[in-house]
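Quick start: read one record
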Amino acid sequence: MTTKPTTGIRSAGKTESGVSFHPAALLYAARALRDFGDGFVSVLLPVYLLALGFSALDVGIISTAALLGSAFLTACVGFAGARYDHRRLLVAAACLMAATGAAFALVHDYALLLLVAFAGTANPTAGNVSVFVPLEHAVLTREVGDAGRTRAFGRYSLVGALAAALGSLAAAAPDLAAPLGVSALQAIQAMFALYALLGLAGGLCYARVPKRTAPAEEHAAPLGPSRAIVVRLAALFALDAFAGGFTVQSLLALWLFESYGLSLAAAGLFFFWSGVLAAFSFPVSVWLARRIGLVNTMVFTHIPANLCVMAAAVAPTLPLALGLLLMRAALSQMDVPARSSYVMAVVTPAERAAAASFTAVPRSLASAVSPALAGALFAASWRAAPLLLCGALKLAYDLLLLYQFRHLKPPEEKGS
């Protein structure tokens, strides 16, 4: 296990005017742009598809296609990240994001939409599940030491969550445009065009990340001595992601629309506050991790969140359901910076991009299966079942993670 970060990209990126930025700041900015777009796309996607005449099952299948495509692209990045410059790969991914937004704005045919969802970057989860993640994690980890790694991932998660929350709030824009004579369909298409522009802006940030300068031996193999650890973590993360796929944000929005008749503006406001609560849970997560450890933080913040989503599934009133879901939002993402930091801590520097990718790919594959199942359950009028399944499976994940990894500590926790 590594105890020291490499120093390959310590230099800051510079703009044409000579102003320099730390690479971490560039990554934070790029993630903010991307997650803002994901925030409104995840809410608008089901509304857009329903407006085009597709069913709830069709929405679930589109979400599954998007997550399957994300898994495929992330796997490719896992192999490529060990051999090619991370900056070039990040810029290419940003260009793909721009193309995805443009395609969704223009395409109405379901078969073509499936293709765009699979091959593009549209994220139905409004979470940090994408082709960008392994590369950003590897670059960010090289910029900090063991003592600062969890704090850096906490900031990274905070920035993304706040941006996603604002994006969810921006999902109400089509309703606000109605008095101007703009139809809902035209307004949503404009939002997809905005998503494309955000991809281009993110690409400009990535273009200023310094090139990696790594010794040749780092390019020998994606995974080496930490393979067994990564495989075990990947299996557990897959279980967690499969459970989470039952309540991706697009489907949770659909559940609120169909179960309680919630308006698009109200849904956007709810997801905004959910995102804000999740965002400000990340500094708390960093504080907890310093005191009780990364694994304990991942587990003991997750369990009450899962109980909340199960209770929300059977809540008799909308205010109670929303209250429980907001409590869940305040707790359920506290494992994110701890998980990212833990994976980077228990592998060698040469394996970081591959480890981030190979733990993310099973997550994407597993989470790609459950949205279609959730869509089928919605279509069968079993609306509470996806939330109940999500909570129960996530509880199983928490207990297994604690059992298997409570003794494998990152470098900064050894001897404490």
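The first helix runs from residue 23 to 51.
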